[in-house]
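Two proteins were folded this term; both appear here.
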Amino acid sequence: MSLVPATQYPPHAVAGVDEAGRGCLAGPVVAGVCILPETYDLPGLTDSKKLAAVKREALYPRIREQAVAWAVGLSWPGEIDRVNILQATFLAMGRAVRAMKASAALLRIDGNKTIPGHALGLRVAQEWVVGGDGSVPAISAASVLAKTFRDRLMVRLATRYPGYGLERHMGYGTREHLEAIVRLGPCRIHRLTFRGVRSEPEPQRQGSLF
């Protein structure tokens, strides 16, 4: 947590950070970061999960046009399987922050954790905000950027890896997706350590006593 209240920082020095795709079975986890100016025109901006896809698509270019700075960062399935999804999410967040074309004095991160130093790669004040994606506009903007970028990417990946329905469920563990994994087996963008993708051991049968 930051020792200085967020209200003490000017808006153009505060970046919101959020992620999309953490619970998916396929595709990368994507982090978004955004610094909003003191005044902006983004009607309906809120948590991306509460917005219809058409509304997110409408906000996406407006956020990028009006933001002081923004960026996205990714962690792909191979890395997710190697370091686990939490650490991969931190790495994606660090990449997004470092990719911004302006520096932030404070990072406000959705959830209940800040980004570890090894993943962030620079010194900057941080604070976590539970429910920040619905209460902090900069975090809401970051969530829209991450979600929209990721959805567009998954639609493109669906053409490379057909048969799984990625363009519909975006890699989440829907019934359609789970059945496709059983039928086709996992592909290169599946997270092989996730339940529903990894092979489960066959239960051992108890021998008869007679």
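Next, the second protein.
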Amino acid sequence: MASYLVTGASRGLGFEMVRQLASLPTSEVSQVFATARGDAPALQELVQNSSGRVVIVKLDSTNEASVKQAATAVGAALSGKGLDVLINNAGVMPYSPEGVVTMDNLESTLSTNVVGVHRVTQAFFPLLKKSNLKKVANITSTYGSNALAPIYMITPSPAYKISKAALNHLTVQYALDYEKDGFTFFAISPGWLRTELGGDWADLSVEEGTKATLDKIIGAGKEQNGQFLNIHVKGWETVPEGKLNHYDGKNAPW
């Protein structure tokens, strides 16, 4: 059985990951820590029906004191055990209607999507080090792929794209630095999902995309260290007419 921590769990992909993880047998998932910056009624309801397996932890990844307090709370809840899997999911995606990167957009997006991930990973590193799995999954996007950048020019979110490219490289740095210590770090794109962030016109339902993402995270081993994973969804092995994306399960290009 493994313990998980999911950041940005109050809605969308993060919430659905917590819900699906909590639905798995206790022999596979022992406890799920769901972080949120503020009140999260949907998470509270999930906690009430989880028989103690889901724990809400207040965490703002842009605030160092908040992150440290969260790590202390999780450590106490684990009672000396390590944290097996960290899923860095919290992120923002501002739009720039004219397609130009503004300073405010870039600074705030990097603060959450890159520096925030680094801050959380550092704070929870001692707990991860005590576990057997030592697995960290950073939720990224193919928008951060340099190779695919021309395809995604139609989406006016340059700060988001830059931040995900930076997150991908942060992931590689961690993977190289800590492979010798038994860690597995990888970036994974969950696809374009019909969430508040992705919109109603996105490719996949949040349930479908989340399951495919968790399948990859749970199945990842040491051979995935430092890689940029893509989900596999049946029927999306090639790009459908009128679509930009495909979900064939093969690693995304850098």
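The chain has a mean pLDDT of 95. The radius of gyration is 17 Å. These notes refer to the second protein only.
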